[in-house]
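Human: You know discrete backbone vocabularies at least as well as I do. Show me how you would write down a chain together with its backbone fold. No explanation is needed for now; the record alone will do.

Assistant:
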Amino acid sequence: MNRTTTTYLSLGSNLGDKLNQLQDVVFLIQSVVGNVIKTSPIYETPAWGFEGDNFYNACIAVETLLTPSTLLEKLLAIETKLGRERDQGTGYSSRTVDIDILYYGKEIINTDALTIPHPNLQLRRFVLRPLADIAPQFYHPILNKDTRNLLQECKDKSNIARTPHKLYTSRSHLFSQLEYLAIEGNIGAGKTTLAHKIGQDFNAKLVLERFADNPFLPKFYEDQGRFAFPLEMSFLADRYQQFMDDTSQFDLFKNFMVSDYDINKSLIFAKVTLQEEEFKLYRKLFNLMHKEIKKPKMYIYLYQNTERLLQNIKQRGRNYEQSIAPEYLENLNRGYFDFIKSFPEQNNLILDISELDFVENNNDYEVILDQIQKFAVKLSF
């Protein structure tokens, strides 16, 4: 039976999207190297040994079945995958990602390809500071000193600043920090389908809009002027009641909540459909309700062009939707964009999925998840 070994790795990046590149490293290590069991905070540090932009540095602990040589091979492949270009010279240079093996259990290895423990770890404050967060009492097998002592004795006095960011061991771990994710979009944009997929794949509680039984909806599409106000008022009452019911109680067996609508949808639709005086009255009631509801930590707007929306609406075959005018959909899109611009303090992510089919094509679904991931990583939870 193969036994796992705990290896400690140092991660760094000073080119491009440093934060997301470090997170990509952790996810790739989790998938091809072993189980990431600890992650340090992320520190901003000056370039060491050369002139360059500041680094983001961190350390992680990984339980792996790989041999040291295979581990090195996998880590080099991850660096290459994430755009690392190795300078043929002997000096240091900027890089998208840098992964160093610090320890491999208590083993001492000295070959042409690999030296463990890392020969310079005791000289580098940017390594020792995050390593002390996850392995303060781990003893260097040659120097016989633990990480805390090595840090105290280190002659490198570089300025090390802890950032508010952190690394996550898995996408599920990252998404769970969102607590509540709202997916919005125009009629036929695919928000319910995406909410279902994310809910299933990441163990999220689904909060889905209930609208099919609204008696005013078919009438509204036949005569908007007459039925706009009762429709919007009934939607507001239903959404408010449902929102209070569904979001006030957290499911202990779910990681987070994902909804296929946000309560602000009521305001956006009402502004498009109601007359000015009707909208003023509507907004007074909305503002009273809005104070009491749970707000999402991330708001995703799925954008699809009008032609694609009409195709989707036709394909799903709801009779009362078939007479929706293109102009109405365009007005709704503008309404959503106006809303997003008016709330810059909200964590808004706009995804243009006009050319994506995330239902039939898993690669397109992965594109969406990757964009959500990269946006979520930069939020300070």
